[in-house]
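Thread: quick sanity check before group meeting

JM: Hey all, I'm pulling together slides for Thursday and realized we never actually wrote out the predicted structure for the chain we discussed last week. Dropping the sequence here so it's in one place. If anyone has concerns about the input, flag it before I start.
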Amino acid sequence: IFKLEEFKQLVSDFSDVADFLVVYIAEAHSTDGWAFASNIDINQHQSLEDRLSAAQILVQKEPLCPVVVDEMNDGAAIKYGAMPERLYVLQAGKVVYKGRAGPQGYDPQEVRSFLEKMK
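JM (edit): ok, ran it. Output follows.
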């Protein structure tokens, strides 16, 4: 959520050349785990219902694209090395851009530069 406004601007600027999707995965900084003082109050997900409920917090912030939820076995997060967060660009079902792991490597501006070359 830290760079959500930057992500939303990316979606807005490039919706004519790309479809965007957020995959909500396990909570990296849960209140009952490794939390920061300024975190949103989300406990570690014990069930799919917990994860769906937590994802609703993101949906309410209107990310301007669909939000889907990873299964409790964390299949998408494991397959894409997405923990705690990561940006990807896929084209014709293949990864053409893989951002560095967040939070330090989560860089919407780098994705912007990549997508500008696709225009």
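AS: nice. Residues 4-118 form a domain with the Glutaredoxin fold (CATH 3.40.30.10). The longest strand covers residues 94-98.
JM: adding both to the slides.
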